[in-house]
Structure formats: C-alpha cells, structure tokens
Write a structure and sequence with these properties.
There is one protein chain. The chain is an all-alpha fold. It has one domain. Helices cover 82% and strands 0% of the residues. It contains 7 helices and no strands.
Length: 239
C-alpha cells in the first residue's frame, strides 16, 4: 500500500509571504536572523572576490618590479602605492628593519661596516619578514570567519525553527482536537520554510568559505616565497 505525502502547497506556489505572515514570532525572528546571515555572507563573498582579484593583479606587478629593480630604495614608492597586495607590506616591514639596523650601525662610532649586515642582522630581518607575512594574510582573512559561522550555525537555526513549527502543529492539534491538514498546515509550512532558509544560508557560505580559504592559502604561499626571495637578496647585496 503506497504512502502519499501531503505537503502545504503554499510554499511552492508563491505563498511564502503568507507562510511568514502565519508564522509565530519566534519563527519570524529565526527567518530574520538567517536572512541577515545570508545577506552578510554574500556581501563578504563579493567583497573578497573583488579584493582577491585586485590583489592577484598587484602581486604580479609588484614581483616583476621587485625583480627588475637594482636597489631596495627604488622599490619603496611602488610598495607604498600598492596597498592591497600583502607583498608590499612584507617589503616595507623588511625595508624598515634593514634601514633601522643600518642607521644604528652608522650611529656607532668607529663601525667600518655600517652599510653591511651581519648574519645576526639577517636573522632579525628574516623574523621580521615572517611576522609581516602573517600580519598581511590576517588582514586579507578579515571577516572570512563569519562565513564559517554562517555555515555552521544556519542549519541549526533552521532546525530550531523546524522544531518550533512542528511544536506549533501539535499545539494546534491539542487545542482544536483535530489532526486535519487545515490545522497542522501552518506549523508544518513554518517548519519547512525554516529548514529551507537555513540551508539556503548555509550552503553558499560553505562554498564561499572553502573558496576564500583556498585563496588565502595561495596568498600565504606567495607572500612566504616573496619573503624568502627578499631574504636571499639581502644576503646577496647587503652582507
């Protein structure tokens, strides 16, 4: 004997606003939270897509300029002009550290190696580059954690709304003493809508978070490789 599953048709016939209008106050709050999560997540994803696109373009430009320039001082203006790429931040941190070390050597009377760096100085520059790399990637990572929050929390918020909707249906059955579809339909519709809205918020956030994490890993690798290249050039030209 076949089982026929009867669902509220309003959800699939343009009656979403009617379902929302018949939902409990708690259900409406759940909808608002989930929609807010979704809108913020989409805003973050669009912003990160635009940012990463510009960062990648500046990465290529800056690396080419760095490799073609003969002196660090020649790269300084380019680094200050390109604020989006993490490479500029790494370069400026390394450059300022080198400048500070050389200035301290110049201030030391009788130091004949004021323009050269020792192995200890190079180690200090290396640590500065590592710290700068982490800091620059952290700047790019800003707000990405919200995507993970949305991806993890939205299904549970939707489930909470689902449970409340089912409870509303059972409450209506108890009040009216009838289990007809007219009695249980509003609660079931509220439950189904909460589930759908929760998944609609979570699924894009999961995809966006994975995409952003992959982009951040790539930017970290690029910045780390640049730091190594910078350090190699320091050893070649200034030691």
């Amino acid at each position: 004997m076949g089982v026929t599953l009867i669902l509220p048709t309003g959800l699939f016939s343009g009656g979403v606003w009617q379902i929302i209008g018949q939902s409990s106050a708690f259900g409406v709050i759940i909808y608002l939270i989930l929609v807010s999560f979704s809108l913020i997540s989409w805003g973050i994803m669009f912003n990160k897509w635009r940012t990463f696109k510009r960062v990648e373009a500046q990465n290529d430009t800056f690396i080419n300029f760095f490799r073609k320039s003969g002196r660090f001082s020649d790269i300084l203006s380019q680094a200050r002009a390109m604020q989006l790429t993490p490479l500029s931040g790494v370069f400026l941190s390394g450059y300022n550290e080198i400048k500070g070390l050389i200035d301290r050597k110049k201030a030391t009377p009788g130091d004949d190696t004021a323009q050269r760096l020792t192995n200890e100085d190079v180690e200090i520059v290396s640590m500065t580059l590592e710290r700068a790399t982490t800091e620059e990637i952290n700047k790019l990572e800003r707000y990405v954690i919200f995507l993970a929050t949305t991806a993890n929390a939205s299904p549970f918020l939707g489930l909470l709304g689902t449970v409340v909707g089912v409870m509303e249906s059972f409450w209506s059955i108890g009040e009216r003493g009838s289990a007809s579809l007219v009695v249980v339909a509003p609660g079931l519709a509220e439950a189904l809508l909460a589930t759908i809205v929760g998944l609609a918020a979570a699924i894009p956030a999961v995809i966006g978070y994975n995409w952003a994490t992959n982009k951040l890993k790539r930017q970290f690798d690029i910045a780390s490789n640049f730091a190594l290249e910078f350090q190699g050039r320091v050893k070649k030209d200034l030691t």
